[in-house]
Amino acid sequence: MSKPSSPRVALFVTCLVDLFRPSVGFATIKLLEDAGCKVDVPISQTCCGQPAWNSGDRENTRKIAETVIQTFESYDYIVAPSGSCAGMLKMHYPEVFAGDAKWMERANLFSEKVFELTEFLHDVMNVKKLKQKLNSNITYHDSCAGLRELGISKQPRTLLKSIKGVKLAEMKDSETCCGFGGTFCVKYPEISNSIVETKTENIESSGADVLLAGDLGCLMNIAGKLKRQGSTLEVRHVAEVLAGMTDTAPICDTNKKTVAKGR
After folding, report:
1. Cβ(12)–Cβ(78) below 8 Å
2. Taking phi first (over 0 means left), then psi (-120 to 50 degrees means alpha), and beta for anything else, what does residue 35 get?
3. CA 62/CA 93 separation, integer angstroms
4. Where in the chain is the domain with CATH 3.40.50.11810?
5. Sheet holding 114-116, edge to edge
6. What is the pLDDT of residue 259?
7. For a designed S-S bond to 93, which of 107, 134, 147, 209 qualifies (C-beta 3.0 to 4.6 A apart)?
């Protein structure tokens, strides 16, 4: 698919960003507009349907998927600041409509337009260098869905390394699960807690003072554990740093507002 000169991009906000971290949405819009995109945020959008899909509720997953496709299919691209949601839209929507020739075709065309944020900036819009400045020692957690379903690894690191003052300290086993896994942490809390304990140990051992990732679910899970352990390490979504919007409070800091100031 050839790239339009000023692509019409629809932001898939995600439930967690909408409810818990709106600043990530504002940062995503800034990054997309700076890259030359015309950005829209469809107000009729809903959840991607992943919780229903993972729970085996195929009927409601299909209803949600039909609504999402109808809402977004007219745009050149659909971008989400989440490997998890982007993975659902891109990889699993065709599965949802398997056997239905009419909807299968629409789902396939839709899925070809879906990208995770750093993947879209790096691979589609050819953004390789950012003008932001941040004197910080960071480490990056690879979310399971972004890494394993979409192959996202070098894109966020390339973008982060282009920021003046940023030093990347790779943690041990950065690609290992944080223990969140959506409904997994609810069904298997003891296992989830054991996994995130190992993750926080690796984060602290990296020597970094900031943890970044591309999925808010992972970040909230890790940040919550770090806070309970008394850590002062700062946790943020990668979009906030890439956009230079770090004036908001870190994730799980209840002493400051987390809603981004106006655009």
Report:
1. yes
2. alpha
3. 8
4. 128-242
5. 38-40, 8-11, 77-80, 114-116
6. 44
7. 107
Q: Are strands 77-80 and 8-11 parallel, antiparallel or unpaired?
A: parallel
Token digits of residue 214: 């591309």
Structure tokens at 159: 């973008």
How do beta strands 77-80 and 114-116 pair?
A: parallel
Q: What number of residues does the chain have?
A: 263
Q: Which two three-digit tokens encode residue 176? A: 């290992």
Kindly give, in sequence order, each residue whose CB lies less than 8 Å from that of residue 59, ignoring residues fewer than 6 positions away.
Answer: none
DSSP 50-104: HHHHHTT-HHHHHHHHHHHHHHHTTSSEEEES-HHHHHIIIIIHHHHTTT-HHHH
Low-confidence ranges of the chain (pLDDT < 70): 1-2, 254-263
- Map residue 242 onto helix, strand or coil: helix
Residue pair 33/22 in contact by the 8 Å Cβ criterion: no
Closest CA to 20 of 221, 230, 226: 221
Cα gap 217→244, rounded to integer Å: 21
Helix axes 58-72, 101-111, angle to 10 degrees: 60
Domain made up of 128-242: CATH architecture = 3-Layer(aba) Sandwich (3.40)
pLDDT of residue 193: 85
* C-alpha closest to that of 130 among 89, 79, 164, 80: 164
Q: What is the pTM of this model?
A: 0.92
Question: 43 with 259: CB under 8 angstroms?
Answer: no
Residue 1: the pLDDT is 57
